[in-house]
Amino acid sequence: MAIASISDYQASLREVPFLQKSLTRAPGSIILNWISLWDQPGAPGAGTLAVGNTANGAVPTDATVGAPTVNFGAGAGYITSIDWAGGGLPTGLTLVNDHPTRWMLYDRLFHAGAYAFNAAVTLASQPSYAARVPGSSYSGLLLLYETVTAFTGTQQLAVTYTNEAGTAGRTTGTQTIGTPSLIGQMFQLPLQAGDTGIQKIESVTSTTASAGTFNIIVARPLAMWASWNSLNEYGRVPMDVAGMTPIFGDSCLTLMHQISIAGVQSQIDVRAEIASK
Prior knowledge:
Layout: H1 6-10, E1 13-15, E2 18-22, E3 34-36, E4 42-43, E5 53-58, E6 76-87, E7 101-116, E8 120-122, E9 142-152, E10 155-163, E11 170-171, E12 175-178, E13 185-188, E14 198-207, E15 211-227, E16 233-237, H2 239-242, E17 245-248, E18 253-259, E19 267-276
Antiparallel strand pairs: 1-19, 2-4, 2-19, 3-13, 3-18, 5-7, 6-16, 6-17, 6-19, 7-15, 7-18, 8-14, 9-13, 9-15, 10-11, 10-12, 10-14
């Protein structure tokens, strides 16, 4: 049942899935790029970065190692607020003045990999994530690249997919990824002009690089927030900003972050209140 009023919210069932992640790798030269926290230690425990399925991909859920449990079952709920805190510095790094740090909470709908540097794979029998797309609308979903092992050579990558309207054979075009050197480094891949989302990944083709492995992810962004002085800060995203974003009982909640200079939080704690009726 929808939550349509404050009284509905007051009468709702509420839970607070908790993510606490520590960054164990120094960001090095990947400033201004996203970094995955999927495989980082904390609560819940570290997920496995190499997905383990290149032929079909997989739909991770809240039962997948690395994701917090969402307890209200198979029905839908809403994110009504988010509390976050972070602090500390990775070993060997120095905080230099104030600096912005961004965090994104997302539902990891689909992932496939780890693909080799010379992959040429056409996927088949891909599992559907339709049950985790609100209102049957695939618009707004992101196509992400996640480094599993460091690369040598300059990687060229093309991904074909079925778009939000069900049109097959759409493509990112050949993208120059470069030489991702940090495990967990992430990029958003562009969709073909006019597309706004993804129903299915069809193929993955990587060339030119001489070593390295990577995942391809379809993600549904849930919330993004930023801090200016990111050393030992606390923040809250209230209901009117959280936007009552729909969430599902089997959503695979996880985090990625982006920094602007070498000093960065070594830990982030996130509590997302979810209300359902």
